[in-house]
Amino acid sequence: MNIRDLIYLRAIARHGHFGKAAESCNVSQPTLSVQLQKLEADLGVTLIERTKRSAMLTPIGDRVLGLADDALGAVDAIRSITAEASDPFSGQFRFGSIPTISPFLVPDVLRALGGSFPRLQLVFRENITERLTEDLLNGDLDAAILATQPETPRLMAIPLYDEPLLVIYPIGHDLGALDHLDVSDLPLDQMILLSEGHCFRDQAVDLCRLKSRTTLAETSVTSLETIISLVVAGQGISIVPALAQSSGWLDRPNLGVKSLQNANATRQLNLTFRKTSPRRALLKAVAEQMHAVLN
User: Which residues form a coiled coil (predicted)?
Assistant: First the structure.
């Protein structure tokens, strides 16, 4: 058994398919398949349940994978520690962001990090909070810009920015006549939000103190850009992050924008990473760069 075997096993668990797993590992399917068969023979157990179209881990395979993740995390830590000893600001830095942050922040962050750390190889990934958290825990990411606090003690976060939330509405809407806008003024049956799985949707629901989500408009989409377009078209109203305004996304004809007076109408952006990460010096420096971009 070697490190490569564990990487192959993890790829099968993620992709559920030998071809896709092999592609993600940059090897041929027969190479990956034969190597995993050797691993099973070495251990004397069946780790993978195979069908013609898919593959999934057996119960014992799941247990082995848990230990494999720990082992691969330790290997990554060893590599990072040795790289940091020579130059903590070089090598590959893999970070992610949720879709309601990345369009507005990531381009500026990439420019800032590239200018400050020219020997750092930046790798970016966009996904929802749940997936990014999984990637952090299994070692696929070094850090992620999230708008929620870590839900596991294995992660910690550096606060970056408290971002106000704004209301957008079509010009001519009744909200335009109000001088001071409160959450209680919002017609929830006109509210267009992101689909389930996006943390920004959950934050908007919590802000509006919704006990039943059936009071919302039936329309839900997967991007803020689509939401803004629907509001411009007169299909409803929405809540958006203030970064959308500072980035120029809200500079459109027929779109009204107002601040909310509620004290809790904000979200906190954080740089989240594993507590065990050996790259603390780099993470602190990266957080300072991101903070400078945001403030």
Answer: none
CATH number of residue 37's parent domain: 1.10.10.10
25: left (phi over 0), alpha (psi -120 to 50) or beta: alpha
Token code pair at residue 224 = 């803020």
Helix, strand, coil share (%) of the chain residues, nearest 5: 45, 20, 30
Paired sense of beta strands 91-97 and 143-146, if any? parallel
Of 150, 104, 145, residue with least CA distance to 125? 145
User: What residues in the chain have per-residue pLDDT under 70?
Assistant: 83-85, 210-220
Instruction: Note whether 169 and 251 are same-domain residues.
Output: yes
Residue carrying the six token digits 């957008």: 168
**Three-state SS for 285?**
helix
Q: For residue range 282-291, list pLDDT tens digits in order.
A: 999 999 999 9
Q: Identify the pLDDT of residue 216.
A: 60
Domain range holding 215?
162-266
Residue 52's CB is within 10 A of a number of other CB atoms, namely 4
Going through 61-213 in order, the beta strands assigned E by DSSP cover: 91-97, 120-126, 143-146, 155-170, 193-194
> Any idea what the CATH number is for the domain that residue 189 is in?
3.40.190.10
State residue 98's pLDDT score.
93
Q: How far apart are CA 161 and CA 148, in angstroms?
A: 12
pTM given for the model: 0.70
- 145 with 282, same domain: the answer is yes
Q: How many domains does the chain fold into?
A: 3
Q: Are residues 186 and 260 in the same domain?
A: yes
